[in-house]
Design a protein that fits this description.
Elements: E1 8-10, E2 14-18, H1 26-39, E3 44-49, H2 54-63, E4 68-70, H3 72-75, H4 80-87, E5 93-97, H5 118-125, E6 129-134, H6 141-151, E7 158-166, H7 169-179, E8 186-191, E9 200-201, E10 204-205, H8 208-229, H9 232-240, E11 245-247, H10 252-255, E12 264-268, H11 278-286, E13 290-294, E14 306-311, H12 320-325, H13 327-338, E15 343-346, H14 348-353, E16 356-357, E17 360-361, E18 369-385, E19 397-409, E20 418-420, E21 428-430, E22 433-436, H15 447-461
Parallel strand pairs: 2-5, 2-6, 3-4, 3-5, 6-7, 7-8, 12-13, 12-14, 14-15, 15-22, 16-18
Antiparallel strand pairs: 1-11, 9-10, 16-17, 18-19, 18-20, 21-22
């Protein structure tokens, strides 16, 4: 139903899966819920609050469609609902996994308390919340906890509780009795199941893309457990109670101007480079590029006619030996960079373009060497571009995030990429290369995609592309 010129009144059924704190099991419950509803034959749209790449990989695997992030810091509060409607097109129901505790938001100066929290996004989406409670070490006290979360913010609707890590039938009975007068229905009770733990790594869970058959089996098992422990019909009724949203769905074609020439842009994928926002590739295509995938672990050359390369995040340190062993592709990327071909690399991409990673040779495009570090670097960044590049002119301001346990020495080249509050200059701009630790969702700064496609088209016209398109 139309809500005005360009506006759509959408009644996508939706729930937000939240928790009182991190490590309560909301990723497992959200993934299992997506898998269980998908197994029913429903088209489920998976979403994730915040910048995290890994959790959407699991829910996306369960749904068979991309898991999409909803992050008011990275894309702006005003884009959250449009991006949700874009991602949920054609879906019967949407499941939005929260971040940290329900009311825990970003702590950057200048942001109001609770900004970018799960509660903030739930309010924007006008979505009911399902609270996943780790009940493993409590009994009657669960009622006080749920009461507090239900009444803390009356603008957030707590529509139900899923009890997680329940120890026995008797334990479940005690918990349900305690919550009987809370006014918040218990939607399910999931037992302690150690075999459903997902392997962890230094930055969190192991990405689903790296686990292939094992990840599929885990997702399938989570779906079976949730289907047996949670009242799916009650969840669907709750999701369908969400009121209509009146907004313009995000459209990448409305965010950028189309560049002539249809340059071919390769985007790194495969097990080593699993971190990326779906909107980035959609913006490249909307700006006129042909987007193809290259797997640095398997492909020995860039796709024919490649004008530019995007290398996003991931875990190259885990795959360093195999990445290094693919000498032919490393040489091809170095050649592309040497002739001025546009290359945009962030975090893992920076490590791959470095001279070495933990002593193992990489592409040698950047005059820096990277090593693993015991220190986790994590947080949102408000950055300003220090050098003109294929991504942005100097002075451009963006919001991004860092998420790594590596250190590059030196941290910046003669022409640095960015500087943010409290930091020294960071990253590298050289010729057509832009490399940095900063992760960006281009939906928040769509001009980056248009500028990059323009640079790739110019490189094609200048004769910087060696092979004709196949």
């Amino acid at each position: 139903m139309s809500g005005g010129v360009g506006r759509v009144t959408s009644s996508v059924p939706r729930v937000v899966v939240a928790a009182p704190s991190s490590n309560a099991g909301k990723t497992s419950v959200a993934t299992g819920l997506v898998a269980a509803l998908t197994a029913r034959g429903l088209a489920v749209s998976p979403h994730k609050v915040g910048p995290d790449y890994i959790d959407p990989g699991y829910t996306g695997l369960a749904a068979g469609r991309p898991g999409r992030n909803l992050d008011p810091v990275l894309v702006g509060e005003e884009r959250v609902v449009p991006l949700f409607l874009h991602g949920a097109r054609g879906a019967d129901v949407a499941v939005v996994e929260g971040v940290m505790g329900l009311f825990d938001g970003a702590t950057r100066p200048g942001l109001e308390p609770g900004f970018a929290s799960t509660a903030h996004v739930a309010r924007l989406l006008r979505a009911p919340v399902v609270l996943v409670v780790d009940a493993s070490a409590q009994a009657q006290s669960v009622a006080a906890l749920v009461h507090g979360f239900a009444t803390y913010d009356p603008t957030v609707r707590l529509g139900g509780v899923v009890l997680n890590r329940v120890g026995s039938d008797r334990h479940e009975e005690i918990l349900r009795d305690a919550l009987g007068g809370s006014g918040v229905p218990v939607l399910g009770a999931v037992r302690r199941l150690a075999e459903l733990g997902t392997p962890s790594r230094h930055l969190g869970l192991v990405p689903a893309a790296e686990r292939s058959a094992e990840a599929l089996a885990t997702v399938g098992r989570l779906g079976e457990v949730v289907a047996g422990a949670v009242d799916l019909d009650a969840v669907l009724r709750l999701a369908r109670s969400a009121p209509a949203l009146d907004a313009v769905p995000w459209d990448p074609a409305a965010e950028v101007s189309r560049v002539e020439g249809r340059p071919r842009i390769a985007v790194a994928g495969g097990a080593a480079f699993t971190f990326g926002y779906a909107e980035n590739a959609e913006l490249l295509e909307a700006a006129g590029a042909e987007v193809v995938t290259v797997d640095p672990l398997r492909d020995e050359s860039l796709p024919g006619g490649t004008a530019g390369l995007v290398v996003g995040g991931g875990f190259p340190e885990v795959h360093a030996a195999d990445l290094s062993a693919n000498e032919t592709l490393r040489a091809g990327i170095a050649e592309l960079a040497a002739r001025g071909g546009p290359v945009a690399a962030e975090c893992a991409g920076l490590l791959y373009l470095a001279r070495s990673l933990d002593g193992v040779p990489m592409c040698g495009v950047l005059p820096t060497d990277a090593v693993m570090s015991p220190r986790l670097t994590l947080g949102y960044r408000e950055a300003v571009a220090l050098s003109d590049s294929v991504l942005a002119p100097a002075g451009t301001r963006v919001r991004g995030h860092e998420f790594h346990r590596t250190v590059a020495t030196p941290a910046a080249g003669p022409d640095p990429a960015w500087r943010w509050t409290g930091s020294d200059p960071e990253g590298f701009v050289s010729g057509g290369v832009h490399a940095s630790y900063l992760h960006l969702n281009w939906a928040g700064s769509p001009a980056l995609a248009e500028r990059f496609v323009s640079a790739c088209a110019a490189a094609t016209l200048a004769g910087g592309v060696r092979h004709a398109h196949r």
